[in-house]
Amino acid sequence: MASASRQAPVIVITGTPGTGKSTHAQILADESPVPLKHINVGDWVKERGLYEEYDQEWQSYTVDEDRLLDELEPIVSEGGVILDWHTCEAFPERWADLVIVLRCDHTKLWERLEKRGYPLKKIKENNEAEIMQVVLDEARSSYPVEIVVELQSEGMEDLEANVARMVEWIKIWRKEHGGES
Ligand SMILES: Nc1ncnc2c1ncn2[C@@H]1O[C@H](COP(=O)(O)OP(=O)(O)O)[C@@H](O)[C@H]1O
Predict the structure, then answer these.
(1) Per the UniProt record, which EC number(s) apply here (predicted)?
(2) Which mutation among 112, 130, 163 tests ligand 1's pocket best, with the greatest number of atoms within 8 A of CB?
(3) Rounded distance, CA 46 to CA 54, Å?
(4) pLDDT of residue 178
(5) Measured between alpha carbons, how far is 159 from 112 in angstroms, rounded to an integer?
(6) Residue 177's CB: how many other CB atoms inside 10 A?
(7) Model ipTM value
(8) pLDDT in tens, 7-48
(9) CATH assignment of 22-173, given 1.20.58.760, 3.40.50.300, 3.40.50.720, 3.30.70.3400?
(10) What are the φ and ψ backbone dihedral angles of 60, each rounded to 5 degrees?
(11) Which residues pair with 51 in a beta bridge?
């Protein structure tokens, strides 16, 4: 059981770039009834140099997964963490109590990535990945189906409803793990 000795859960928020992971994670960290540390894994990789190389053409880093997992392990095993990353299959299954996969209509996603200044081929690649539900399939094949939850992230009302659902889930988790409701 992932969470046997933890006081607070580990929530993975994943999805194609631009689906809203960081936005959700920040608000959830603010509104959670238990303290949750938001780790933006992409930023972590950059800040700590946990990559093998930077690909200029794709404007992306080749992550050193072994080092990344080694650095995350002691933090994650304490619990009370939101792991925010565009992929989730590298994380050990035992880490996650809940895996949220954010989804977005591809035309909206295209606009978000354009605004971010991504090169066209990177926008296309991510757009296709979203249409083909690559991250959702990856989550479903990496974790027990009952902890993987797919949520739409298109407008502000989705954002509010999704965070409210996660807060409710945390309250129940806490009750089940001997904390207050
Ligand atoms: N549900 C949503 N409603 C409105 N805007 C959103 C929503 N989700 C994300 N956005 C916007 O889309 C952009 C990308 O969101 P971000 O959280 O950075 O995505 P990610 O972390 O998945 O790359 C941001 O400008 C954010 O404000």
Answers:
(1) 2.7.4.3
(2) 112
(3) 10
(4) 83
(5) 15
(6) 17
(7) 0.99
(8) 899 999 999 999 999 999 999 999 999 999 999 999 999 999
(9) 3.40.50.300
(10) -145, 160
(11) 63
Lookup: tokens for 115: 């605004």
Q: Which two tokens stand for residue 38?
A: 């938001």
Q: Which of 13, 16, 21, 23 to mutate to test the pocket of ligand 1 (most atoms within 8 A of CB)?
A: 23
Please state the atom number of ligand 1 nearest to the C-alpha of residue 25.
17
| CA atoms of 151 and 149, how far apart (whole Å) | 6
Please give the helix or strand (H or E) that residue 33 lies within, else none. none
- For residue range 58-88, list pLDDT tens digits in order: 888 999 999 999 999 999 999 999 999 999 9
Looking at this protein, which amino acid is placed at residue 32?
Answer: S
